[in-house]
Amino acid sequence: MSEKDDLERKLSELLEDGEMEEADRTAKEIRQISPKYEIRIQTTLDPIVEETLRYRKIGHELDDRYDKYLERAKKDQGSADRDNS
User: Fold this and answer.
1) How far is CA 69 from CA 1, 17, 49, 64, 76, in A?
2) Per-residue CA distances from 78 to 10, 21, 30, 61, 75 (Å)
3) DSSP string covering 2-28, please?
4) pLDDT band at residue 21 under the 50/70/90 scheme
5) Pick from 51, 46, 54: which is nearest to 74 by CA?
6) Region Disordered: which residues (predicted)?
7) Quick one: pLDDT band at residue 80, thresholds 50, 70, 90?
8) 59 with 52: CB under 8 angstroms?
9) 34, 49, 55, 78: least CB-packed within 10 angstroms?
10) Could you tell me the CA-to-CA distances from 2 to 5, 7, 8, 16 in Å, in that order?
11) What pLDDT shows up at residue 77?
12) Which of 69, 25, 28, 46 is closest to 61 using CA atoms?
């Protein structure tokens, strides 16, 4: 048996037979838990609206699928501007 085969066999035995240490198991469980909190950042500009407007300067959109979104964003921005005044 070659040295490489011997090392592979030893590694395989360690991976299959060995128990996880309690600290490793706890750390793994903590990493798998989903976070309880979300971080949200409020921006003054909607990146989707900005990007859509830039693309519309370049070319014509065939199906106008963002028109309703842009109208709603304009209304929301208008009401936010009035609230801040």
Assistant:
1) 68, 57, 8, 10, 10
2) 68, 58, 44, 25, 5
3) -HHHHHHHHHHHHHHHPPPPHHHHHHH
4) low
5) 46
6) 1-26
7) low
8) no
9) 34
10) 5, 9, 10, 21
11) 74
12) 69
pLDDT, residue 67, reads 83
Report pLDDT for 44.
82
User: Do the beta carbons of residue 69 and residue 48 sit within 8 Å?
Assistant: yes
Query: What is the C-alpha separation between 50 and 27, in angstroms, rounded?
Result: 42
Residues with Cβ within 8 Å of residue 53, at least 6 apart in sequence: 70
Extract the tokens encoding 27: 């750390």
- Model pTM above 0.70: no
Q: What is the pLDDT of residue 81?
A: 60
Phi-psi region of 33 (alpha: psi -120 to 50; beta: other; left: phi over 0): beta
Cα–Cα separations (whole angstroms), residue 20 to 12, 34, 77:
15, 22, 54
